[in-house]
Amino acid sequence: MDTSLSETEYKKYARHLILDNIGDSGQKRLKAAKILFVGAGGLAASSIIYLAASGVNYLGIVDNDIIAYSNLHRQILYNNKDIGKLKVHVAYNKIKEINPECSVCVYPFLANDNNLKDIIKNYDIVIDTTDNFQARYLISKSCYLQNKVHIYGAVQGFEGHISVFNYKSGPLYPDLYPQSLNLNIKECDMFGVLGITTGIIGMFQAVEAIKIVLGTGSILSGHLLVYNLLNSSFKILKIVPKKNQNLIDNSHSNRILDSNIISNKSLSLLMNQSTVILIDVRQPEEFMKYHLLKAINIPLKHIKSRKSINFIRDCLAVHGRDQKIVIYCYDNLRSFVASQILYKHQIVHYRLNN
């Protein structure tokens, strides 16, 4: 690939060229970079736009999804005229409008273990803009086997996460979310998301890709950046790549362990031996439809409140060692998040694994 800059490109990227950390050589690196997106939804939308506009001249997109009205509030690559079209085809045309020199390869099918490894080998960096855990495990595995950098992003409600995996032998995605958790839901479908959240996190992913290409700045390898829009806060968690898959908060000594997981059979035995408080962390309408016998409902969004934490502590204080707290949900993600919150408050508990 010819990485020399044309007269038009010198004009187009003039504000890049005067930056000490980019300059002529850096812009040539951006032009030569090969970046693959797995997923063409909300995270990809803003990231694709900025990388194409920044002068990245080789982009790939894997996605088999069709544009729907429910996508438009966050997937800014698309509009009403695109409803019913394949996302990758519309994205291709939008990239060409932004950067006509960019070579764009689209893969209009679902990524799987067989095809992804053959696609990834042609790229330097993989930007993970999927919305489910199984796809992320697949991307992590493929990037590890092909020695490619994996830039992760995820959103939920008003919060987003970003990290970089498999960078210079750094942690992998399963170090953050061990596969033993059996997580299998789509965050946006289950929890909802403010549209702009995806745009912000997607841009952060683009930033990490640019820093890696340029060889400048601090890369989010070994760390998880958590951004909350409601209070404009940033928090950085350290990811420790150990066999027990611990996630350690820099500001706390607590660790999120798998050792507190119990099965339905173990729960029955526990209830015969001790006083057990079952806490269902689903929404009230879900709880009303079905819940385990004698369970109480503390929705996930309320469990970190002072009132809820004090209630749980009071329950433990009444019965002492004979009192056991068990967190559960029909999916394991919400119970896992609730477990993190209780660990943060140093509350000993169990988590029911479905």
UniProtKB/TrEMBL annotation:
Rhodanese domain: residues covered: 272-342
Alphabetic keyword roster: Chloroplast, Membrane, Plastid, Transmembrane, Transmembrane helix
Record GO cellular component, one term: cytosol
InterPro entries: Rhodanese-like_dom, Rhodanese-like_dom_sf, ThiF/MoeB/HesA, ThiF_NAD_FAD-bd, Ubiquitin-activating_enz
GO molecular function, one term: sulfotransferase activity
Entry keyword Disulfide bond: no
SUPFAM superfamilies in UniProt: Activating enzymes of the ubiquitin-like proteins (SSF69572)
Keyword 4Fe-4S carried by entry: no
Stored Gene3D superfamilies: NAD(P)-binding Rossmann-like Domain, Rhodanese-like domain
Residues that span the membrane, as ranges: 35-53
Family, similarity comment: Belongs to the HesA/MoeB/ThiF family.
Designated name of the protein: Molybdopterin biosynthesis protein
UniProt organism field: Gracilaria vermiculophylla
